[in-house]
Design a protein that fits this description.
Blueprint: E1 9-12, E2 16-18, E3 37-39, E4 60-62, E5 81-83, E6 91-92, E7 105-107, E8 115-116, E9 129-131, E10 150-152, H1 163-167, E11 174-176, E12 198-200, E13 206-207, H2 213-221, E14 225-226, E15 232-234, H3 248-251, H4 261-265, H5 269-276, H6 280-294, H7 327-336, H8 352-362, H9 372-382, H10 394-444
Parallel strand pairs: 2-3, 3-4, 4-5, 5-7, 6-8, 7-9, 9-10, 10-11, 11-12, 12-14, 13-15
Antiparallel strand pairs: 1-2
Length: 445
């Protein structure tokens, strides 16, 4: 049995070798050629071209968190999992992966990839998981293999979805294209993906006009689990509004022209009525449920995940892989193997990036175990701008009017009586003056 390279950790030399965070500038010279899983992550490797070709049994390889400026050449065809996240790769040539037909997982997250030549991924007939998150792509890669089930293109600069590239992905189940520059989705873009069950389209530059009606109706159909809080950026009067809080008329006023009403809307009258009567409350509830469901999806585990606090209740399996054993866990095992060989330990904790993703998806909503009152308060708080019905003030207005009229009538009666009293008083005064005047005339004669 070949010895373990100095500074590395080997559960069983010749099978799984972990040489992580050692400041290596080249591959360790004494790695057994029979190794099936090798990790040299978190080092300072700049070039490994053709150095790994002799490892004919190598199935899992991690070169993540290094200084590779291009896709490594001369890798063994036996590879099934290749992790290259957080390097400095800028492009993928057409022949870079030609000999890697057994790959099922390829992780290129957080590189600087601007271009992938057409056909570069076409020969990967077994590839299931492809991660291109955090690069500088401006369009979907061409000739993607139909075997893909998980495709992550988030945090790029993609401004349009290429229909031919999407239509070939008949086995795709999870699509992440959030945090890009999409403005709309082409008609029937997702109709050719029969197995699609999860989509993330948040944080794009959605232009809420007529071209977005396909996506609008597709979201309302509820065919897949996804976050529905897509925010409009244009036009200006709809900016910062949630797409599903808008009506068809608000998005595309021309869709209901009088001369087209009967011809265009008759076949979909039921759907249009549903769209027009959609309430803010039901939309928010749907968004909450979809987001909560997204957290249940299983994701690939990143190799570089390091568990700082290793619980003593974790149990290692007989077959170790790069995804179930970290460098620190390996060292821990070597210390405990001498004491007992029947209680080996391992785990596969969620990576920080995945946990952050789940926190981002569910952070704005109550947790799944929240009480109904808390959920209700959360839902109501998201709709504070919605119009609430106000009490009808009409009965109070009529009552006030009747009181005012009665007061006016009483006032008029009082004024009339006052005038009558004044007139009677004047009459008495005049009569008295007439009686006094003749007497005064007789006494003078």
């Amino acid at each position: 049995m070949s010895p373990c390279p100095p500074g590395c950790c080997c559960t069983r030399p010749g099978l799984l070798v972990l040489c992580e965070s050692l400041g290596l500038r080249s591959l360790p010279p004494s790695v057994p050629l029979s190794t099936s899983a090798l990790s040299v992550a978190r080092n300072q490797l700049c070039n490994v071209d053709h150095l790994l070709r002799p490892f004919s049994s190598l199935q899992e390889l991690s070169l993540s968190h290094n200084l590779l400026a291009r896709f490594p050449r001369g890798l063994p065809p036996s590879l099934e999992s290749l992790l290259l996240q957080e390097n400095r790769i800028t492009y993928i040539t057409a022949g870079a992966l030609r000999q890697l037909g057994n790959l099922t997982r390829l992780d290129l997250e957080d590189n600087r990839i601007r271009a992938i030549q057409p056909g570069a991924l076409q020969s990967l007939n077994k590839l299931e998981v492809l991660t291109l998150k955090g690069n500088k792509l401006t369009s979907l890669p061409l000739d993607l293999p139909p075997s893909l089930t998980h495709l992550d293109l988030s945090a790029n600069c993609i401004s349009a979805l290429d229909l031919p590239s999407l239509s070939s992905l008949v086995n795709l189940q999870v699509l992440r294209i959030n945090s890009n520059c999409l403005r709309s989705v082409p008609e029937s873009a997702f109709d050719s993906l029969p197995r699609l069950r999860s989509v993330d389209l948040t944080n794009n530059l959605w232009e809420c006009e007529c071209d977005i009606l396909y996506l609008y109706r597709w979201l309302l159909s509820g065919r897949v689990k996804m976050a529905t809080d897509l925010v409009c950026t244009e036009p200006v009067h709809l900016a910062h509004r949630l797409l599903l809080n808008l009506s068809v008329m608000a998005i595309c006023p021309h869709v209901l022209k009088p001369d087209e009403r009967t011809h265009h809307l008759a076949p979909n009258s039921a759907l249009e009525r549903k769209l027009e009567t959609l309430t803010v409350e039901s939309t928010t509830q749907s968004s909450f449920e979809n987001k909560r469901n997204l957290g249940d999806l299983s994701e690939p585990v990143s190799i570089e995940t390091v568990s700082k606090d290793l619980p003593e209740t974790r149990v290692l399996h007989e077959h170790y892989t790069l995804e179930t054993l970290t460098y620190e866990e390996c060292l821990f095992l070597n210390k405990t193997q001498s004491a007992s060989t029947s209680h080996l330990k391992t785990t596969s904790s969620l990576p920080d990036e995945e946990q952050k993703c789940r926190d981002n998806i569910t952070g704005r909503y109550p947790p799944s175990n929240a009480t109904s009152a808390e959920v209700t308060r959360a839902l109501l708080s998201t709709n504070r701008d919605a119009a609430w019905p106000t009490p009808n003030p009409q009965p109070f207005t009529q009552q006030d009017s009747a009181i005012v009229i009665s007061l006016l009538v009483v006032l008029c009666v009082l004024v009339a009586l006052l005038i009558l009293a004044v007139l009677l008083a004047l009459k008495q005064v005049l009569l008295r003056q007439q009686r006094v005047a003749p007497l005064d005339a007789g006494s003078g004669g």
